[in-house]
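User: If you would, consider this record:
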Amino acid sequence: MKNVIELSKANYKKYIPIDIAAISLAEPGAMGERGGIIIMSTKNELFHLNYIRDKDINDVLDLICPILFECEILLFAEKTPPGWFSKYLGFGNHLIVREYLQCQFDEKANKLEDGKILYNEWINIISSIIEEKSNANT
């Protein structure tokens, strides 16, 4: 597992702006970590916060994850702004990804072995795409 940077109201300024490649969001009633947000940056950095456990983070959430405020996330349906696409991860968990990653993401997601679910694998998929793009640029 990658090192995860825990974001809080006290430290978020050290990390913003985050160039977000993908972001997962768990609704308040979701299975897994309800209220959890995981952010994968285009630099392959992984960030975490929880808007339920850490109420103070809500004051600055729009500065950390502005894309969330441009999306409409409802049970089984996500509406994203241009340049983004969404995947429902099941049980109240949502994933929003940069559109330029969609072809590679869908290709890798469709090749998941039986028993592996996207909810558990999206970080590895996005991370591998970012690494491939980085290696292609060097």
Remarks:
- The mean pLDDT is 92.
